[in-house]
Specification:
The protein has helices at about 5-10, 15-25, 35, 65-70, 115, 135-145, 155-165, 220-240, 245-270, 275-280, 290-305, 330-355, 425-435, and strands at about 45-50, 100, 105-110, 125-130, 175, 200-205, 310-315, 365-370, 370-375, 390, 395-400, 410, 410-415, 420, 445-450, 450-455. It is α/β, with parallel strands linked by helices. Strand 2 (about 100) and strand 3 form a beta hairpin. About 50% of the residues are buried.
Length: about 475
């Protein structure tokens, strides 16, 4: 292998992500004012973000509305005509799943999530979220970055930039996409935007090949590989000496060394077979419907154990046919029933597993969707349709773990679950709260770009004090 080939292989083998972790870990690259940005007492030191792509229906899951059930088949009584994505305003539609009060807290959660419902006393549900658009792709961008346009850093990138990694051989920000396909917008959703590229999310798939191009395409004899490394090391040291010990070059050299360590750490952390049969069954790895997402949830826990700061798990992909996401335009019962079956047991297992290991005490779990769905059906006729349209005016997300009041429902929508009406929460508010729980002041974590001190929450947002313990 020549020098050019070696560097190309190192680049494709995640050397850039490796360098990022080392630079952050060494403190060479941090927020512009790290002492000011991270001066709050952190309640959590790591987080998992579960993204439900396609828009979960709040009125079928976490937002119980007796009036919606009572008025099933009637017209929405409102002086304001709903502005819905496809413009088809049908009759009010009762949920397809029964609601029950769960746990000692009595939180209302539907039978769509029976396993998660058993953990109601660990959940903090926000029922008054609003978004700025009901178009999937820009709404997903806003969910991740706070902005509807692409080109802005994702929340995971900001956390990587502001906090760095606790791991010596893994990146700070890892993304586990849906095994079926990528979300709309693809890698833009975990982009570093104008932050250094090393802060972007690194994809690790819960498959036999967790990272593409981690290993050389062609086998290399050990002796040849060692000789190539020795040669490149000698050249880099000579270059380093001639440039007065440049810190960036020194960190890059260490980054290549970390890339080599990743060849050991990534296959090891992705080896789910090391877990007991009982643990694998708890996550649903023995069931066809749950095994893919179950592997992702189990991999997320293993990554956190090894010092990864932020893991994103995606449920749902792009908007082709058949639908492989939560976009229930045609048939809510079929669509949401299929998607919930894939994730309900694995997500509940993840919470239980973290709790029994004592990790939930300093871990933050987030479960969000880009927006919600209408309480009325998507139909151009007087019949009650089987699907629901997009709804940006009021929807639900939930959180669990460190620093939160568990067993709590915060905020509310109107009588039928259409619009947020009390304690309205925006994405900047949500992001400010996440940063606060991780010990960061959202107004001080900034990056100078195009003449502006940019931040995740732009010029908006306040932590939601009503959900903080």
């Amino acid at each position: 292998m020549n020098r050019r080939g070696f560097f190309c292989w190192a680049k494709d083998g995640l050397a850039s992500a490796a360098a990022a972790s080392l630079l952050l870990n060494d403190g060479v690259l941090r927020a512009d004012t790290p002492g000011e940005a991270a001066d709050l007492p952190p309640r959590a030191k790591r987080a998992i973000h579960i993204c439900l792509v396609g828009a979960l229906s709040q009125v079928d899951s976490f937002d119980y509305k007796p009036d919606l059930i009572k008025n099933h088949g009637k017209s929405l009584q409102s002086s304001e005509r709903p502005d819905v994505f496809f413009g088809q305003i049908g009759l009010l539609r009762a949920p397809d799943w029964q609601f029950q009060q769960r746990g000692q807290s009595g939180l209302w959660i539907s039978d769509l999530f029976p396993h998660l419902g058993e953990l109601a006393d660990d959940l903090t549900i926000i029922r008054s979220m609003v978004a700025e658009t009901s178009n999937h792709t820009p709404a997903t961008f806003q969910e991740n970055s706070g902005f509807r346009l692409n080109g802005f850093p994702s929340m995971g990138a900001w956390l990587s930039y502001g906090l760095g990694s606790e791991a010596e051989d893994l990146p700070a920000f890892v993304v586990i996409p849906d095994a079926r396909e990528m979300p709309p917008g693809g890698t833009i959703n975990w982009s570093s935007g104008f932050l250094p590229a090393r802060n972007q999310g690194v994809i690790i798939r819960p498959t036999s090949e967790p990272i593409a191009d981690l290993f050389p395409a062609q086998p290399i004899e050990p002796g040849a590989e060692q000789a190539a490394r020795a040669l490149v090391g000698s050249m880099n040291r000579r270059h380093l000496d001639s440039h007065g010990g440049d810190d960036m070059l020194a960190a890059r050299i260490r980054g290549y060394q970390l890339a080599a360590r990743m060849q050991n750490s990534v296959p090891e952390v992705a080896e789910i077979g090391q877990e007991s049969a009982q643990t694998q069954a708890m996550y649903g790895l023995d069931r066809l419907e749950t095994k893919d997402f179950g592997r992702g949830c189990l991999l997320a826990r293993r990554l956190l154990e090894r010092g990864v700061r932020f893991v994103q798990l995606y449920s749902g992909g792009t908007f082709g046919s058949p639908r492989r996401n939560w976009d229930g335009h045609e048939d809510m019962k079929q669509n949401h029933g299929q998607e919930a079956l894939r994730i309900d047991q694995p997500v509940a297992a993840l919470l239980r597993d973290l709790k029994r290991r004592g990790m939930l005490e300093d871990t933050l779990i987030l479960c969000t969707s880009e927006f919600g769905r209408t309480p009325f059906s998507q139909s151009a006729s007087d019949a009650v349709g089987t699907g629901r349209d997009h709804n940006q005016t009021g929807f639900s997300v939930w959180m669990a773990g460190a620093g939160l009041k568990p067993g709590l429902a915060y905020g509310s929508t109107d009588e039928v679950g259409w619009k947020a009406s009390e304690n309205i929460v925006t994405w900047p508010d949500f992001h400010a709260t996440v940063l606060r729980l991780l010990g960061i002041d959202h107004e001080r974590l900034t990056y100078y770009h195009n003449g502006i001190q940019r931040r995740l929450t732009n010029v908006h947002g306040q932590p939601i004090t009503g959900i903080l313990a």
